[in-house]
Write a structure and sequence with these properties.
mainly alpha; two-stranded parallel ribbon; single chain; 2 strands
């Protein structure tokens, strides 16, 4: 990270934008974005989840597998 203050400001802006839409989570494929936004959310107690796209896919696959295992 080159400019920590700039990264924090960008994270704040993105999080505020997401919150204004009623979003419950922010999904990104950028690992630095995940780290920066997750840190901002945690430090500021923002009720928003920050996930990497692979985490979202994993949840979806797991949910589908769990649903299928309950079908007999």
């Amino acid at each position: 990270m080159i400019d920590a203050d700039l990264a924090t400001e960008i994270a704040r802006s993105k999080i505020e934008d997401a919150q204004s839409t009623g979003a419950q989570a922010i999904i990104t494929s950028c690992q630095q974005c995940v780290r920066t936004m997750a840190t901002y959310v945690r430090r500021n107690k923002v009720p928003l989840e920050v996930l990497d796209i692979t985490q979202l896919i994993h949840r979806a696959v797991k949910k589908k597998n769990d649903e299928n295992s309950n079908i007999k």
